[in-house]
Design a protein that fits this description.
This protein is α+β, with helices and mostly antiparallel strands. The protein has 2 domains: about 10-40 and about 120-190 and about 310-370, FAD/NAD(P)-binding domain (3-Layer(bba) Sandwich); about 45-120 and about 195-295, Polyamine Oxidase, Chain A, domain 2. It contains 11 helices and 18 strands. The strands form 5 sheets. Strands 7-2-1-11-18-17 form a 6-stranded mixed sheet, with helices on one face. A hairpin with a 2-residue loop joins strand 8 and strand 9. The longest helix is centred in the last third of the chain and has 20 residues, at about 330-350. The two termini are about 25 Å apart.
């Protein structure tokens, strides 16, 4: 139920922070529209569709998770949200078998993975929300009637009471500049780590299989040296299809290696990462198809818990920012930041005086987590 005025809110960015904030506002009765430069939701909870031709000349398609490996839950509020998502069929627990001799798993080895693909969690949160895909917002305009968003020469005609930016800080900075120069300055220097990711399909039916018995026994490797930080058998993850005669590999490079080679041609990066994977597997890989993806803003550089300022909120202008660079690292930090910003915005809607984010991320999240985050039809 809405207390006070029902607000018209534009949320820029459809990753977990934007989707969670939009959901909290929608559940409170406000009118939310999502804008994202991509063709669908998810952000770094990403799955790529690969199209290729097999050795018999037949067209094939495969979906591979090339973004976040998975995530953990530490706070009571986020664990409640995770439990609800599992009940809704949008998340599954995954305790992958680690390769011998690699770095140990974090948080006891238990990860949560969206199913049937990584964007499923954000799709569930945005069920019923008006969305504008392939709309890369590059400017915000404020006048006495409200906010408008613009992508290139296209200005969306709707007037909004508030705008939420749920973007990597470097992408949020130019949008903030004309309206909050102090925020823009902080966002422009907020360090984010890059990541090159290799993904592909290997033939396991040939002698050059890429999935020897030693590799078949494990699902995740965390090499202690070399370019690669994570190596995954993607087809071993919950809800992913296994195809006889194939191994679906995903490898994430270390942040330092990715930063040093950030501007290298994709073909060179692919060659280097393929060689590193072959070394990890201790044999060549018989690739059927392979490609790389560059994440310029993969994770915040500083691994930190939720801070005293889990979001930015300017009630006078109706402008807010949320994301993992403010709320703490990872999916949980992004979610907590979104709940904090939604709570601050809802105080405005109930005619309370709010001048800045109050920072009570966990308290706001506790309240938000009591309400099921998706419609009853999402199962």
């Amino acid at each position: 139920m809405v207390i006070g005025k029902a607000l018209q809110v534009a949320v820029i960015g459809a990753g977990i922070a934007g989707a969670a904030c939009a959901r909290a506002l929608t559940m409170a009765g406000h009118q939310v529209q999502i804008f994202d430069k991509s063709r669908g939701p998810g952000g770094r909870l990403a799955t790529r569709r690969l199209e290729w031709v097999d050795r018999q000349g037949q067209p094939c398609t495969t979906r591979i998770d090339h973004g976040a490996v998975g995530f953990t839950a530490h706070s009571v509020a986020f664990q409640t949200f995770v439990d609800q998502a599992i009940e809704a069929g949008l998340l599954a627990e995954w305790a992958p078998r680690l390769a011998a001799g690699t770095l140990p798993a974090e948080a006891g080895g238990l990860l949560y993975v969206p199913t049937p693909d990584m964007p499923a969690l954000c799709r569930g949160l945005l069920e019923g929300t008006s969305a504008h895909w392939s709309f890369a917002v590059d400017s915000l305009h404020k006048n006495p009637l409200g906010w408008q968003v613009q992508a290139g020469s296209t200005r969306h005609p709707h007037m909004f009471d508030a705008v939420v930016l749920a973007l990597p800080p470097a992408q949020a900075a130019p949008l903030l500049g004309p309206h909050r120069r102090d925020w823009a300055r902080h966002a422009s220097i907020a360090p984010m780590q890059p990541c090159w990711t290799l993904m592909g399909i290997a033939d396991t039916s040939s002698p050059c299989s890429g999935a020897p018995e030693a590799a078949a026994a494990w699902q995740v490797a965390r090499p202690s040296t070399g370019p690669l930080a994570w190596v995954l058998r993607n087809d071993s993850r919950p809800g992913r299809a296994r195809v006889p005669g194939q191994a679906h590999w995903v490898a994430h490079a270390r942040a330092g290696w990715s930063r040093r080679h950030l501007e290298q041609p994709a073909a060179w990066v692919q060659q280097q990462m393929q060689a590193a994977l072959a070394e990890c597997l201790n044999r060549p890989v018989g690739w059927l198809t392979c490609t790389v993806h560059r994440w310029r803003y993969a994770v915040p550089q500083a691994q930190k818990p939720a801070s005293a300022q889990a979001c930015w909120w300017d009630a006078a202008q109706g402008l807010g920012v949320c994301g993992d660079f403010l709320g703490g690292s990872g999916v949980e930090g992004a979610w907590l930041s979104a709940q904090s910003l939604a709570a601050a915005l809802l105080q405005r809607a109930s005619n309370s005086v709010v001048t800045s984010a109050d920072g009570r991320a966990h308290e706001a999240a506790d309240e938000a987590a009591r309400v099921p985050p998706w419609p009853s039809c999402v199962h």
